Amino acid sequence: MKQRYTLTLAHINDTHSNFEPSPVQFSLENQQKTYTLEARSGGYARLGYQIEHARQQAAIKQSPFIFLHGGDSFQGTLYFREFKGAANAHLLNLLKPDAMVIGNHEVDAGNSPVQAFLNRIDFPVLAGNMDLSQEDRHKSGRLYGHPMLYDFDDSTETAKVLIKPFHDTKLAIIGITLDQMRLIARPDPDTHFANAIDTTLRTIQRLHQQGIYHIIVLSHLGLDQDRELAAKVDGISLIVGGHSHTLQGQLSDIGWSNIPYAETINSTPILHAGKYAETIGLAEICFDQHGKIVELQGNNYFMVDENITVTTKDGHATDSNTAATLVKQLFAHPSIKDAQHDEHIHSVIHTQYRPSLDAIENQILGHIPRDFVHTRLPSKHLPHGSEIAPWVSRSMYKAAKNIEPTIDFALHNAGGVRQSLNKGQLSLADVVGRILPFELPLTLYKIQGKYLIEALESAINSATNNGIMGTGAGSFPYPYGLRYFYDGKQAKGLRITQIDIYKDDQWQTLEPNKLYLGVSSSYTAAGKEGYEALLHAHWQQPISNQTLPEAFIDFVSQHGHLITGQLFANVHYISHHD
Questions:
Q1: What is the pTM (predicted TM-score) of this model?
Q2: How far is CA 560 from CA 322, 368, 392, 412, 511, in A?
């Protein structure tokens, strides 16, 4: 038996259909001044070059090579809106991953899109705690028994495992995804998710009984839950993760994170590679004969072109000599690679898929007079939070009012808005591809005031550290027609200290036992991410032929001149730490 087992690993996660390079910003110090460098990084053609180069280098060294995707390939850009996952499957096939774990955005629209994706791909999707044992065997979109899916084995209560030859032994890859999936996505009702930690523990015990000790968990749990998994389950050689969009690496000197690459807990290194295909993780790993990693050298890398704009911290242009010095300084950083790309992948993107997007880019909806910043949570700089989400709620309100003139309020979650709104022309592509990429239907509902209060507090608790099982800052609520005051210092159940509703041209105190008519996205109305209290509505009714992005498009087209000032005095938030 060998004493040392080497592996070359490439990994990405949360790519969200970003097939082309994404805009990124770096911050550099030079002669005691701070400068901003704007560039474009990543994209599938550049990923393809780096992956193939790493694969070839591993072959030269006679080291096994594995390329893994940490989930959430779906959603995010116009490419997904236009091609519904077909482009994702085609381009991922060209990257040749060894495996991908299923993410929450893969099941945003239920099981059928996942089945269509599985039918197109050449690599396995791992979902070891996705329990399909109760799935209807006769329905369309059935996932049970699909040969490309490694799901939960209910007979052993373990994950189905991808086993690969590894030197003179075997390497196991277990795919584990969020067991809170029903809270943040929309899997079919007959699809369940077993406990992530328990499933991993039982699966590793079973692998050990088979004499397999070199074990990678490919996870879509997020960094915090990966840490918990590593701490509670012995025997995991390595966790390769996703979901939290965490960019690991000592990157503070270029204005990014300062989170160690391969943070190690309970002898298990954890690897994450950011988001949106901006970066790639590359690592050289050495295991001992018992599966423990004894050496790991690696990093996350940006893949940056030389078309870089350099400005001072306050936005002024710099002279050419200073700009050239800073660009040279950037490319000298160990986490920066250049923009070499795979020509075939580049050609496929720009000949087969890009033309459809160009037509949408040219449809101009209106002019935005200034930048509007989207942030999920209020902060000292933006005490009322997002400047965009309230306008989205107002657009939902306007759309609903055309159908139900007595509408009282609209309520939307921060995570449903993906980007800030930039000054200048607003195109259809900006809305449906970047700001509101999720085509969620709108839902009307009638609800008692007390349940609305409960929903607001629960959603804020989920978005902040007041929530025991937070689902992320994306649950933070932004209403229109409502205003609320939240104090995180108060006891649970008492944190909404005041809530008013705008009726008859004035603010009135919301009455707990009175019924009110509201509108939300179908996602929020279904009780996701802390909004469970909305399920106590007296009734819910979908608005036919009206989605969230369509409502905003209609609003901007008809009332875009109104988007000139601030519309966020409806959120008054005192954090637990204030």
A1: 0.81
A2: 40, 8, 12, 20, 33
